[in-house]
Design brief:
Number of domains: 2
Radius of gyration: 19 Å
Number of strands: 9
Low-confidence stretches: 144-154
Shape: globular
Bound molecules: guanosine-5'-monophosphate
Oligomer: single chain
Strand content: 5-15%
Length: 365
């Protein structure tokens, strides 16, 4: 199928990191400005931004660079707006965007003001109607609350649901992680639905984050964990014991871990290009997608970092279809199944099902 077919299909994105999804053109523009100010040497960072193949270690070095480029509130607002517009432009109808609230005293940034800048970005989106507040929240300044129109295949204006997950970075302390969880709780009415644990998987200990994650779950926030990006049986075990609502990646599980994971039926966010580029999985031929798909394990195809890995959700659907022999219907069904794994209320699920039902009629045309 041509790319256009994947682009026009409604899609659900559940694993996208804000700072990993920034357009290359925006990063280059920001780098040029910082270069002119003498903060960085543009020629040193240009090739880092444009490089395609990166190991997992290099990816985390790139994130450190991106974070220098996207430091201030205005830029956070800008990239949030652009990332949502980019996802909407390829007919992502539901987006769970995750980001790590950052504190930077030198520019007066607190975790709260970082998140407020993200929320400003959501409100600034103007190429698409955004529904970002839960149905039960005070909807006095909701931008758009109902999306039951046909979002794909030629209706007037695109629409997208956006929910936020706040990430805890594995470099953080228990106190910092707890601050993130408390912020998420305060911002629930503004579309924050859950907590993610991410960051360099060879840094930090599970027990550092456990108290904050446990508290988050007790308070009713949803939890997704980056799990098994590197071999670490003890941590994988502890994470599965925790019973998160979803996990990301699951690349380095041993047989016993697969057995347990499958019996728990925890949905997994699969990021094909990311896993291959970072060498977390040797090649697409041996990717665990095939086994999970054949065992009917709940899974959702995601981008991870569409900017860093030069991908898009349409490209990931295309890759899964060609690598694993799935047709248009198979991929459509996977996207529709993902509605069951989203961290939003039943009303959103119902409306998304309507979108998929109306789009299904056009699948075979
Ligand atoms: P941000 O949270 O700053 O918006 O997005 C970038 C951050 O997401 C990175 O610094 C890192 O903590 C996390 N991240 C992005 N991609 C990956 C990934 O593939 N694996 C892990 N473990 N963390 C990631």
């Amino acid at each position: 199928m041509e790319m256009e077919g994947w682009v026009s299909m409604p899609k659900v994105e559940l694993h996208a990191h804000l700072n990993g999804s920034v357009r290359d053109s925006t990063l280059l523009e920001l780098a040029r400005v910082l270069g002119e100010k003498g903060v960085i040497v543009f020629s040193d960072v240009e090739h880092v931004i444009l490089k395609n193949e990166r190991s997992l270690t290099e990816v985390f070095r790139l994130f450190d660079l991106i974070h220098i480029l996207t430091t201030d509130h205005k830029i956070i607002t800008r990239i949030t707006k652009e990332v949502i517009e980019d996802f909407a432009s390829e007919n992502v109808v539901y987006l769970e965007l995750r980001t790590t609230p950052k504190k930077n005293d030198s520019i007066g940034m607190s975790k709260r003001s970082y998140l407020e800048a993200v929320l400003e970005g959501i409100k600034a989106v103007n190429t698409v109607d955004v529904a970002f507040r839960p149905h039960n929240a005070d909807v006095s300044n909701v931008k758009s609350s109902s999306l039951i129109n046909d979002t794909c295949n030629g209706s007037t204006r695109k629409e997208i649901y956006v929910r936020l997950l706040l990430s805890i970075d594995r470099r953080e302390s228990t106190e910092a992680a707890m601050e993130t969880v408390k912020l998420a709780l305060e911002m629930r009415d503004l579309g924050v639905v859950g907590i993610d644990l991410s960051g360099n998987p060879i840094v930090g200990e599970w027990m550092t984050f456990f108290p904050a994650l446990k508290f988050a779950r007790e308070q009713g926030l949803y939890i997704t964990l980056h799990c098994g990006e590197v071999p670490n049986p003890k941590e994988i075990q502890a994470m599965l014991d925790f019973l998160p609502q979803r996990i990301g990646h699951a690349c380095c599980f041993e047989e016993e871990e697969w057995k347990r994971f499958k019996s728990l039926n925890i949905p997994v966010e699969i990021c094909l290009t990311s896993n291959i580029r970072t060498n977390s999985v040797r090649s697409i031929e041996v990717h665990h997608f095939a086994d999970l798909y054949n065992s009917k394990h709940p899974l959702v195809i995601c981008t991870d970092d569409s900017g860093v890995f030069s991908t898009s959700l349409s490209k990931e659907y295309n890759l899964a279809a060609s690598a694993f022999g799935l047709g248009r219907r198979g991929i459509f069904q996977l996207a529709r199944n993902a509605i069951e794994y989203i961290f939003a209320d039943d009303e959103v699920k119902r409306e998304l099902k309507e979108i998929f039902n109306s789009s299904e009629k056009k699948l075979d045309q």
